Amino acid sequence: MEDYKYLFKVVLIGNAGVGKTCLVRRFTQGVFPPGQGATIGVDFMIKTVEVDGLKIKLQIWDTAGQERFRSITQSYYRSAHALILVYDVSSQPSFDCLPHWLREVEEYASPKVLRVLVGNKTDREDRDIPAAIGEEFSRANSMYFIETSAKECENVDKLFHEIARDLIQTARSNDGQTNDSQQPTLLDGNKQQTWIDSHCCRT
Ligand code: GTP
After folding, report:
1. What separation in Å is there between the alpha carbon of 117 and the centre of ligand 1?
2. Residue whose C-alpha is closest to residue 105's, from 70, 131, 137
3. Does the beta carbon of 65 lie inside 6 Å of ligand 1?
4. Which of 25, 71, 92, 201 is the most buried (most CB within 10 A)?
């Protein structure tokens, strides 16, 4: 049996083209794929990370942003421990769609899911959405917040490590109820914190 303490399922959602696949590939493979094509349906990758001395297996599900795949992708929300909602800081439409994505999360995900808002593509010079606006949205909706660049490898490791760290804390506090460490543990994600203001984004 593989040696890990916890297995967590993380699902990325958000408009087509915001960079979900590139974030996953940057984190799992250390590459920024040239000419990344649109995701068809759902794809997944696995990466084992070490956080605070514990081996954690992250099962990362990359969903298609295109509307035509929506009924397929929604079925992956339910068992997610963490949902990463991605927008593109240079795309106002991708930000304007966030309330729509949150309604989907309310409808299809566990109420205890850890919700993380990510503003991707910070390397772009034609930014439309200031960090403060993203942060305000995340506060209003009780989400973690972080900005990333898959291209420049900015904050990508931090994003997934902080998710793992948070899920470990919750799993540990639930361990009295679920002692089998190989089983995914349901989480209390009802906390509000902005990583930009805390340890996640300190350099
Ligand atoms: P769907 O699979 O259609 O839902 O798209 P997606 O959200 O997975 O986007 P994808 O990762 O395929 O990236 C879309 C485009 O954005 C590609 O041309 C990427 O090269 C580009 N891109 C992704 N991340 C970044 C980034 O951090 N910076 C810049 N400048 N471009 C990025």
Report:
1. 16
2. 70
3. yes
4. 25
Task: Determine whether the shortest distance from the Cβ of 20 to ligand 1 is under 6 A.
Answer: yes
**Nearest atom (ligand 1) to Cα of 65:** 4
127 lines ligand 1 (CB under 6 A): no
**Span from the CA of 38 to the centroid of ligand 1 (angstroms):** 9
Residue in 13, 36, 153 to alter for ligand 1 test, most ligand atoms within 8 A of Cβ: 36
Q: Which residue has the tokens 């490791």?
A: 157
Query: Do residues 167 and 6 lie in contact, with contact meaning Cβ atoms separated by under 8 Å?
Result: yes
User: What residues does each domain of the chain span?
Assistant: 6-202
- CATH code, residues 6-202: 3.40.50.300
pLDDT per residue rounded down to tens, the chain (203 residues): 568 899 999 999 999 999 999 999 999 999 998 887 888 888 899 999 999 899 999 999 999 889 888 888 888 899 899 999 999 999 999 999 999 999 999 999 999 999 999 999 999 999 999 999 999 999 999 999 999 999 999 999 999 999 999 999 998 887 765 444 433 333 333 343 444 433 333 22
Cα–Cα distance for residue pair 82/166, rounded to 1 Å: 10
